[in-house]
Amino acid sequence: MAEDEELRLRRIAERRADAKLGFRSHLMVYAIVNAGLVAINLATAPGYLWFVWPMAGWGIGLLAHGFSVYAHAGDQREQMVEKELTRLRNNPPKN
């Protein structure tokens, strides 16, 4: 049973690590692409700063991604799943 618990914890840890790496990749792509958009904008039409619109829109998505990764909403889900499993083990459904 201890090995099963260790395997379960490892899977959770791997999912969290993958989520953090995914966010970091997203952040790097955001920075590189938007730096390019700023350069293009300033080189071609410095009188109108249009780069702020894609930067703002994508930034909202990036913030949401970061919040979902670092706010640990998954912890609450895991706790709920564990609570439900305990309840079901103590009172199995009659199907």
Q: Can you characterise this structure?
A:
The protein has 95 residues and is mostly helical. The chain is built from 3 helices and no strands. α1 (2-44) packs antiparallel against α2 (52-70). The two termini are 26 Å apart. The model has no long low-confidence stretch (mean pLDDT 89).
What's the SSE blueprint?
Elements: H1 2-44, H2 52-70, H3 73-90
Spell out the helices and strands N to C. Answer: HHH
Number of strands: 0
Mean pLDDT: 89
Total helices: the number is 3
Helix share bin: over 70%
How can the largest sheet be summarized? none
Distance between the termini: 26 Å
Structural class: mainly alpha
Provide the gyration radius in Å: 22 Å
Low-pLDDT parts are none
Strand content: under 5%
Oligomer: single chain
Shape estimate: elongated
Can you describe this structure in just a few lines?
This protein is 84% helix and 0% strand. The protein is built from 3 helices and no strands.
Features:
single chain; 95 residues; mainly alpha; 3 helices; 0% strand
